[in-house]
Write a structure and sequence with these properties.
This protein is 34% helix and 21% strand. The chain has 434 residues and is of the alpha/beta class. The chain has two domains: 118 residues, Urease, subunit C, domain 1; 289 residues, Metal-dependent hydrolases (TIM Barrel, Alpha-Beta Barrel), CATH 3.20.20. β8, α8 and β9 form a beta-alpha-beta unit. The structure holds N-(iminomethyl)-L-glutamic acid and fe (iii) ion (FE).
Length: 434
């Protein structure tokens, strides 16, 4: 039995997981993100055991061998032993797209949409992204840190151990920096791994209405240098779409990011089609949403290491009948990932299993494909695949234990949380009932 008290992330006791019915290792001999048929290869081991030491995975094998190991026999009392009793263990989910820095849910938008308004109509009437700005601008860094930390803790309860977290509701220099500082402060308190992203180009704020080019200059010439200097973000993101930023503005922002040594990613094709060629020149780690993509762009995407990240929680919550055509991407050889897109406007969910369930039922991805897209390919989308996304010796000890005996149950039991325990950088959190 593991205590649910908040562990000290600096203490790294050895952790041994035993009696795993299915261990999904996601290991692969090939380098690069999973594509095509390899997306279904989960590297399943039965009756497995995993030993973690110093925050890393040091051994993966059978329970029988682990119990016979002389070092383990000698040190058993010092080890945190977790009897998985026939459950499923897999790499912690890598949620490569979230917007956790906001203060309030958007309940009026929710009701308006139920009454028939769409995302763009709501934004034009003063709702949408712009309606979250005041809350963030008026909040203290401490209050925002608390919100982000609460989201991280909830993500971990659903099996996520690595999270990309974007700014993007401050939309002026002071509040964008404050948002990224809140992400940094919250991530220091959390045993998992957080990848911060600067999303100053999420929307044109009201004071720049009709002057989007001037706002882009503020993003590139004032906000980005400050973010880079203080190492507050690893990525720069842009909402490239109708009503947000144009493809030209996006490449301008990408070029500025390149100058500052920051990698790039973008929201693309959520509302309208943007051709991908000019963006792919900047080697984005990931292009996300991808509801409206020109078929002619798929070969170039498949040739690149850019991951197409689907966020079906947004389609679900916006009540859309149409989801991205995942099969077309997979059959073209594009590397695909899944993420929650946790945010107050289009996807208020922290559950990767929910995103996976939607991928299966609405996008016809198989449960195995959904799991690879939520783990190893999420890690590629964050350029962390050398450390995250699979259960292999030498990788970070990021694991999740699900209260199921077959991995297909993870997307099957939708709307229920079957995650029993997570291990983040070697630190267990949660507990198994007997
Ligand atoms: O990924 N598309 C832009 N950004 C978010 C929505 C943010 C919001 O509505 O607050 C998204 O869906
Ligand atoms: Fe988003």
């Amino acid at each position: 039995m593991i205590s649910s008290a908040k562990p000290n992330p600096r203490i790294h006791r050895a952790v041994l997981l035993l009696n795993i019915n299915q261990l999904l290792t996601l290991r692969s001999a090939a380098d690069g993100p999973r594509r095509g048929a390899s997306l279904s290869e989960l590297g399943i081991m039965q009756d497995a055991a995993v030993l973690c030491l110093g925050g890393k995975i040091v051994s993966v094998g059978s329970t029988k061998d682990a119990l016979r190991d002389p070092w383990l026999k000698k040190n058993r009392k010092k080890i945190i032993e977790i009897d998985c009793a026939g459950r499923v263990v897999l790499p912690g989910f890598v949620d490569s797209h979230t917007h956790p820095v906001f203060t309030q849910p958007r309940l009026v938008d929710f009701e308006k949409r139920i009454s028939g308004a769409n995302y763009e109509e709501i934004a034009e009437a003063g709702g949408g992204i712009r309606s979250s700005i005041d809350g963030v601008r008026n909040a203290s860094k401490t209050a925002l840190t608390r919100k982000v930390f609460a989201a991280l803790a909830d993500l971990a309860r659903h099996g996520t151990t690595t999270v990309e977290a974007k700014s993007g509701y401050g939309l002026n220099p002071e509040s964008e920096l404050k948002s990224l500082e809140a992400i940094r402060a919250a991530s220091r308190e959390w045993p998992g791994t957080v990848v911060p992203t600067f999303l100053g180009a999420h929307a044109v704020p009201p004071e720049y209405r009709g002057r989007s080019q001037e706002y882009v200059e503020l993003v590139c010439n004032e906000m980005m240098p400050a973010v880079a200097k203080r190492k507050l973000a690893q990525f720069v993101d842009v909402f490239c779409d109708r009503g947000a930023f144009s493809a030209g503005e996006t490449t301008q922002i990408f070029a500025a990011a390149e100058e500052h040594g920051l990698a790039v990613r973008a929201h693309i094709g959520q509302l309208s089609e943007t051709r991908l060629g000019p963006l792919l020149r900047y080697q984005p780690a990931s292009l996300d949403h991808m509801d409206h993509v020109n078929d002619a762009d798929l070969p170039a995407l498949a040739q690149s290491d850019t991951v197409a990240t689907f966020v079906p929680g947004a389609n679900y919550f916006l009540g859309l009948a149409r989801y991205p055509n995942a099969r077309r991407f997979i059959e073209s050889g594009v590397a695909v990932a899944l993420a929650t897109d946790y945010n107050p406007g289009s996807s208020p969910t922290l559950s990767m299993p929910m995103a996976m369930s939607l991928a299966c039922t609405q996008m016809k991805m198989s449960p195995a494909e959904a799991i690879a897209a939520a783990t190893i390919n999420g890690a590629w989308a964050l350029r962390l695949a050398d450390r995250k996304g699979s259960v292999e010796t030498g990788k970070d000890a990021d694991l999740t234990v699900f209260d199921v005996s077959d991995y297909r149950e993870i997307p099957y039991w939708f709307g229920a949380n079957r995650c029993a325990l997570t291990i983040m950088n070697g630190v267990p959190s949660g507990h198994l009932s007997s």
